[in-house]
Amino acid sequence: MTTCVNGVVGDTCIPGTPQAEVCGDAIDQDCSGADLSCADVDGDGDGLTTENVDCNDNDPNIHPGAIEICDDGIDNNCSGEDNQSPVINTFTSTYAPVSIGTSITATADFTDDNPNDVHSVSLDWGDNTTADFVLPVGIRNIEESHTYTGPGVYTITLTVSDGYCGAGFSQYRFVVVFDPKGGSVTGGGWIMSPQGAYPADPSLSGNANFGFVSLYEKGVNIPKGETEFEFKVADLDFHSTTYEWLVVAGAQAKFKGTGQINRTGNYGFMLFAVDGNISGGGGIDKFRIKIWDKDNNDVIVYDNNLNASDDAAPATALSGGAISIKKK
């Protein structure tokens, strides 16, 4: 009788008992007819071997079909590379204000180290509408158009996902949409300027006087008017020279322009106003002005709601005076 005992074949009347096979030792312990290649061994118990594409047979969490963990330096699903999140390089849209009903275009480009990834794109236009679509494999550019139907200062949010792990995220601020028939805003009075509003000397506080008018004249897309703001304790006397745009939306109005401080320099400004007597105004008139130095890297010179975003409602109530928003 031919037997196999511990890998040794011989003729004996005593049947041999096959042993547990040890891979790669050149001994056929289990009498299968050949030594077991270590490539055929499931070393980590995940049901796969290096022979059938387990790229790491020492870790049961790494194998084809495993969930890929982004940016951890490990090829968790044996795709041949660690999956990286998409990176948005540029994201732009129109800078110049547009009137309602005008189409605007947002463009972006991004990179992804994984050439075969399919990317889902979501564009939130900031007006409760979104554009969601899937890009073909290899496409890394985005161009999409949108038309706003109401006035406002909108933030566009872009999300690009590869479907495996994290997503690239970017925002464009701001798209200004105005209604040339949208009315006017006027105001006059004073506020109690809080500490911190004047970064050159954050300790300063006290009364700050203001007066402004901003309106669209018939057939003109650039608003007209004048803005004055004085924070006397800081020797700051701002006077507008030009306006760029005006947005009136419900109880809130916002306009932007340029001007001078103490009759010199080149300063940008944005004024935010709430008419408390209009529905949604909360019964309290509120005012904010933000002034920055255009010739000095847009350094903030004054902001009575410092660190608030440009799309935040003003928080400073008037100490005296009134704000009036009129709709045509």
Beta percentage is over 45%
What is the domain total for the residues?
A: 2
Instruction: Name the overall outline.
Output: elongated
**pLDDT under 50 segments (min length 5)?**
11-15
Write the layout of secondary structure elements.
Layout: E1 2-5, E2 8-11, E3 87-92, E4 98-99, E5 103-111, E6 119-124, E7 130-135, E8 141-147, E9 152-161, E10 167-178, E11 184-193, E12 206-215, E13 224-231, E14 236-249, E15 252-261, E16 264-274, E17 286-293, E18 299-303, E19 316-317, E20 320-326
Parallel strand pairs: 4-10
Antiparallel strand pairs: 1-2, 3-5, 5-8, 6-7, 6-9, 9-10, 11-12, 11-20, 12-13, 13-14, 14-15, 15-16, 16-17, 17-18, 17-19
Tell me what you see in this structure.
The chain has no helices and 20 strands. The protein has 328 residues and is mainly β. It folds into two domains: 92 residues, Immunoglobulin-like, CATH 2.60.40.10; 143 residues. Strands 11, 12, 13, 14, 15, 16, 17, 18, 19 and 20 form a ten-stranded antiparallel β-sheet that branches. A five-stranded mixed β-sheet has the order 4-10-9-6-7, with no helix packed on it. A three-stranded antiparallel β-sheet has the order 3-5-8, with no helix packed on it. Strand 17 and strand 18 form a beta hairpin. About 2% of the residues have low confidence.
